[in-house]
């Protein structure tokens, strides 16, 4: 009597709870996952001109032409320039104040024009654009130090002091359409 073993049935897992757990895990991962979004280059564009409006006249001496060709070479006014020299040349151009007849008349009139070819290496273009922005940042920091004893970034956002420095060194950067070739 006691020798006989009774067979027990194997226990089963309920499948209904598994669907609930999978759904909750899905919701959890959707909530906590961050998605990297490319934001691009933040530039403030000027307002679009009216259709029949002529562009304002620009003296050639107030325009610094920068070309980044398909091989990644930087040409400033048709002269090959190393990318490490771009920042200093822009600072000299903008702060000339009419002394050198080949450079701008004043910081307010200085315009930096950037043009590329379609095959320009992206990294070279970004590095060159960083140098241009860095030149203006250094000029604004120097002016803010001289005027207020603080860097430009330490001035209160949208304050009268910050606007004064922006007026002293306005960023006039023209980014032209790339060449096809």
TrEMBL record:
Where is this gene product found? Answer: Cell membrane
- In residue numbers, the region (Disordered) covers 154-181
For this UniProt entry, which residues form the secretion signal?
none
Q: How does it sit in the membrane?
A: Single-pass membrane protein; Single-pass type II membrane protein
Q: What is its main location?
A: membrane
Keyword line: Cell membrane, Membrane, Protein transport, Transmembrane, Transmembrane helix, Transport
Q: Which InterPro entries match?
A: ExbD (IPR003400)
Residue intervals passing through the bilayer: 12-32
| Sequence similarity | Belongs to the ExbD/TolR family.
Spell out the protein name for this chain.
Answer: Biopolymer transporter ExbD
Query: From what organism does this protein derive?
Result: Fodinibius salicampi
């Amino acid at each position: 009597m006691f020798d006989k073993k009774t067979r027990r049935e194997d226990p089963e897992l309920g499948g209904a709870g598994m669907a609930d757990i999978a759904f909750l895990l899905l919701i959890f991962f959707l909530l906590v996952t961050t998605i990297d979004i490319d934001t691009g280059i933040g530039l403030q564009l000027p307002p679009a001109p009216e259709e029949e409006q002529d562009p304002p006249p620009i003296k050639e001496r107030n325009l610094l032409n920068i070309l980044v060709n398909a091989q990644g070479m930087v040409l400033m006014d048709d002269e090959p320039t190393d990318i490490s020299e771009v920042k200093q040349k822009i600072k000299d151009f903008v702060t000339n104040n009419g002394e050198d007849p080949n450079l701008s008349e004043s910081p307010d009139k200085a315009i930096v024009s950037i043009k590329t070819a379609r095959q320009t290496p992206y990294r070279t273009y970004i590095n060159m654009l960083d140098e241009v922005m860095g030149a203006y940042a250094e000029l604004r920091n120097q002016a803010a130090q001289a005027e207020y004893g603080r860097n430009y970034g330490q001035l209160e956002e949208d304050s009268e002091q910050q606007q004064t420095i922006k007026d002293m060194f306005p960023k006039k950067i023209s980014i032209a359409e790339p060449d096809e070739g």
